[in-house]
């Protein structure tokens, strides 16, 4: 049966004059998979990266890139490959699959390759294209989304925090910041990044999304890196800028609202109450005083809040509202804090609720004029030669009420008076004697003498 039908086929071909078709004149190309999107077709002189299987007519494999565990990279169309491949690969898109039939004169001819390819062999190739680039390729930057306001853009030596997805041209992911659950943080334009990204991040603004396509000569070159980035690979980075700053940045202060007739403003040592919202520049809200019953309280200049917030709260009047942009070196630094990522720029909205004039550092109470000459006698209200805590407290409160002096402002004046009493009651017996009582200014003077 089988022999009979073969004979029939031959005679049919004979009738059509094709009984001896002879070797193929040219490569036969079957494009059996063409991707929907084809941004570029391989041209003569392009570098390409691909996988292939090579078989004989009977299906026997003579070579395969897969067996070597690596893709093949090279220049197409310039005679470095067998002519059949040079021709058969031209015009391919990334991810396209082709079946090629290469006649012997476009392959290894009548000589073949000793021990591998016999003379006059027709070769069959299955090829999938993975990468196309040219040594003249420049970086390609596409803006995917840009915020409405872009007051400032990245320049050399700025420090940027961004998220990214990295893929090869064929769509294989090689790396992503999201998998590490943290932004990628780095200086731009100072050689920390591959050349392509040092260039690709220039001029980007906060919140922007960009696609940066980096040819291998601006990435990891012919050798690639690790097991995810092959040699001669084009890299696609989709980046989303979270924030950036420069190590020289001061706090940025924008006054949103300033009440009229504002002539008393905050200074160092003042005790203030304020409301605030704190967020990252991408809008992520971190903290807010509105989550608590009462506004935040602080003594300015007492190292109780980050430096940037402290300076942003100076020169404010009650009722004023500001937006502060605090760079990390005036915030929580490179290591961040609980709930604050390292090197993050912070945005504060602040509103000053109240302000009490402070006293110099180290003082709990100051006189507005000269202190009374006979201080002990004045304090000893019942004239019994000693001053217990309640007498001391009554005296100090009277001075404050009469405007003769003021206490260090705090949320708990009783505590301040108790501390003052504790300082004066040097032997801690619950009462101050005439010998014990000393003004701080005199004390300081004595100390200076001792030191001298
Ligand atoms: C080559 O052969 C391997 C094993 O059969 C197969 O997985 C791979 O898809 C083939 N490659 C091409 C380009 O056809
Ligand atoms: C940019 O500047 C405008 C006007 O000066 C201001 O309203 C806006 O808030 C600024 N945007 C950012 C992100 O700083
Ligand atoms: C990265 O990929 C994830 C998952 O597809 C996506 O949600 C995210 O927006 C991408 N990021 C960028 C910067 O393109
Ligand atoms: C500003 O100063 C003037 C004159 O000293 C005073 O009358 C006024 O009450 C002050 N305003 C405020 C808001 O303190
Ligand atoms: C904080 O945010 C809330 C909600 O947006 C707003 O009502 C409040 O005024 C903000 N506080 C300050 C100090 O700006």
Automatic annotation (TrEMBL):
According to its UniProt record, the EC number is 5.2.1.8
User: Where does it live in the cell?
Assistant: Endoplasmic reticulum
Signal peptide coordinates: 1-17
Catalytic activity reported: [protein]-peptidylproline (omega=180) = [protein]-peptidylproline (omega=0)
Boundaries of each EF-hand domain copy? 373-402
Sorted alphabetically, which InterPro entries does this protein's record hold? EF-hand-dom_pair, EF_Hand_1_Ca_BS, EF_hand_dom, FKBP-like_isomerase, PPIase_dom_sf, PPIase_FKBP_dom
One term of GO molecular function: peptidyl-prolyl cis-trans isomerase activity
The UniProt entry, under Pfam families, shows: EF-hand_5 (PF13202), FKBP_C (PF00254)
**Domain PPIase FKBP-type intervals:** 45-133, 157-245, 269-356
Could you tell me which residues belong to the region Disordered?
421-452
**Top enzyme class of this protein?**
isomerase
Q: Name one GO cellular component term.
A: endoplasmic reticulum
Alphabetically list the UniProt keywords: Calcium, Endoplasmic reticulum, Glycoprotein, Isomerase, Metal-binding, Repeat, Rotamase, Signal
In what ranges is there compositional bias, type Basic and acidic residues?
Answer: 426-452
Q: What biological function has been recorded for the protein in this entry? A: PPIases accelerate the folding of proteins during protein synthesis.
Name this polypeptide is given = peptidylprolyl isomerase
What organism does the UniProt record list as the source? Answer: Gallus gallus
